[in-house]
Amino acid sequence: MTTNKTSVHKLWAVIFTGLVSVLFQTSAIAWDGFSPYREDEKPKAFSNQVFAEPGWDAAYEVLTIKTKDGFSIHYNEAENGEAVLVGAKNNVLASAKGLGKPMWGVCVVEGDFNQDGKPDFALMMGNGGNGMAADFGQWVFYLSCPTGYKPAILDTDTIDLDDLIELGNDGCLRILHTSLVDVPSGVTVSGGRQLYFYIYRLLRVKGTDFEEDRVADPRFPKIVAYMRWSQQQNHKETKLLSAAQKVELLKDHPIKIRQGADALRADP
């Protein structure tokens, strides 16, 4: 009897391990297998410096990351999820609130994002857990301006340092933004399969504002179909939607950026 119980426990352990493995594989597939670029198409990374320090506590509630120029970014979950940019003289330059709890991939990127000759900063925070939402995250940009710095918060359904890219030879930063959305009304899926779409857009920084860039790469915005639990990679523009349906899908899922006063709200 003891032997049978032990065998059953071992069987359940194997099943549980397999399920966990599938969840993490699905999470990886969601980004690695479903991106707008094939491996041989990936654009050049934007020229910047990346700083990451394990300067947070065990509960991921507080963190501090410093750059080599004396700037630093401090995050405190207890203070309404606030991230503050601090200057070399320990002076507060800009603040953003209402951020999610960082779970992984936290770092600070420094570069001249708006091409004004001054350093700009971006805090990258992975907020997701397991499954389809595993790669969700937030970019917090601190953009230089004549009066100092202005914050901007950009939510994206997949986040990675590879989101910051260069296209062509203009030296401008482009930000690859991702939305994972449901099938729009009027679209039928055979066999009752769970179908979703990744919407990929390119953003460009203009001063302290952002605008969608549809010129640098005419393939964008790009919509890629994602069949849940599928092991097949896909980087191609979907043919499951008509041109009109694609226009409607983009309209129904705009990019949301919190800037200025909106970036300082504790409960967005």
Number of helices: 2
Q: Domains counted in the coordinates: how many? A: 1
Could you tell me the number of beta strands?
16
Assembly type of the shown chains? single chain
Rg measurement, Å? 21 Å
Largest sheet features: 6 strands, antiparallel
**Measured distance between first and last alpha carbons:** 58 Å
Low-confidence stretches: 10-31
Summarize the helix and strand pattern as letters.
Answer: HEEEEEEEEEEEEEEEHE
Beta-strand portion reads 35-45%
Helix content: 10-25%
User: Given the C-alpha coordinates, what overall shape results?
Assistant: globular
Mean pLDDT over all positions? 81
Describe this structure in words.
- The protein is 16% helix and 35% strand.
- It has 268 residues and is an alpha+beta fold.
- The protein has one domain (23-261).
- Strands 1, 11, 12, 13, 14 and 15 form a six-stranded antiparallel beta sheet that branches. A six-stranded antiparallel beta sheet has the order 2-7-8-9-10-16, with no helix packed on it.
- The radius of gyration is 21 Å and the shape is globular.
- Residues 10-31 have low confidence and may be disordered.
